[in-house]
Design a protein that fits this description.
A hairpin with a 2-residue loop joins strand 3 and strand 4. The protein has a 3-stranded antiparallel β-sheet with strand order 3-4-5, covered by helices on one side. Strands 1-2 form a two-stranded antiparallel ribbon. It has 79 residues and is an alpha+beta fold. The longest helix is centred in the C-terminal third of the chain and has 9 residues. The protein contains 2 helices and 5 strands. It is globular. Helix content is 23%, strand content 34%.
Length: 79
């Protein structure tokens, strides 16, 4: 598990900061910012994909249990 210093997604000065050089390919990263959940994914070509979770129920669950984010996302995706 990554320490907070190593995690490539941080909140600073009212914005989301990404350190893409610290991101592993094919790994999901997230942050909770201004009551919203943002997802970041770097593919094997090095392209960065960014998503916002819009489902309010999913967001509430993720905010309460961020360590279960992948399980929660799968639940709401119907996987």
């Amino acid at each position: 598990m990554m320490s907070a210093d190593e995690y490539p997604v941080t909140i600073s000065e009212g914005s989301i900061k990404l350190k893409t050089e610290k991101m592993a390919a094919d790994q999901l990263y997230h942050c909770i910012f201004e009551g919203k959940v943002f997802l970041f994914y770097k593919d094997d070509l090095g392209l960065l994909h960014c998503y916002e979770v819009e489902d309010r129920n999913a967001v509430e669950e993720i905010v309460k249990n961020p360590s279960d984010i992948e399980k929660i996302l799968k639940k709401y995706a119907g996987v």
